Structure formats: structure tokens, C-alpha cells
Amino acid sequence: MKKLKTKLIITLLTFGTSVYAQSKDSLITINNVFNSVSLNSNINSTSYDLDLNNINLPTKNLLFSSINKTTQLNDNYLVINEAYIYHNSNFLFENKFKGSRIDSYNPYGASNINSALFLGVVGVFLNKIQK
């Protein structure tokens, strides 16, 4: 019985400290995209004016993807002002059916270094032609 109490106390202490391990001020917050929408309203009137011409949506966001070996998902990070912000995790069906994984380090899913280098050179060449 004493061993059970000891294990229970250790478990509760571990759980209690892990809940408060991340402080709120260390979290990175993303500004809402729709904060730039202007909603002009008057409390006394029932008409609302929504100006859709002044919405400034981001046109091009950089995304960094990396495979999480624990969850077997691709963790995605948005690159905003030279900072990486966790966005979401995706399940790529291709990663389950192919022997290799696709992420930012291996965008073509090459299985060996020769294929990766060759496909990288071809990709750079094709990107130069498109621009």
C-alpha cells in the first residue's frame, strides 16, 4: 500500500508540474488575418457596412515542413518575419505508401542521396526557367 501511495504522489507531482511547464507569455501568438476588416457600425442604426476592398490577406506565406518521428505526421511551421510559428500537423498519404518521406528536407521523396541531388538540380533548373 505504501508503494501505491508513493507512486500516486509522484504521478500527481509530475502531472501538476507538467501542466504549468509552459507559461503563457512564452507562447507566440499570431495576429488574426481578419483584424484588417473594417466594420463600420452605428449602435443606433440597424445597417452595417462591411468593406471587403480593404482586406489585406497575405499573398505568399513560406511554410517549413518536417516529419515528426513520434506522431508520423508532417509538422508545418509558417515563416513570418524570420520566425517559425507552428501551424498544424498533416498526414500525407504518400508518406505511408512510399518507402521515403516527403518534407522540406526531402521535397521529392528521394530514397538515396544521388536521386536527391539529381532531383534538386532539376528542380532549381526548372525554377530558374519559370522566373
Automatic annotation (TrEMBL):
Keyword Signal (UniProt): yes
Keywords, in A-Z order: Signal
Signal peptide limits: 1-23
Protein's name in the database: DUF3575 domain-containing protein
Organism field: Bizionia argentinensis JUB59
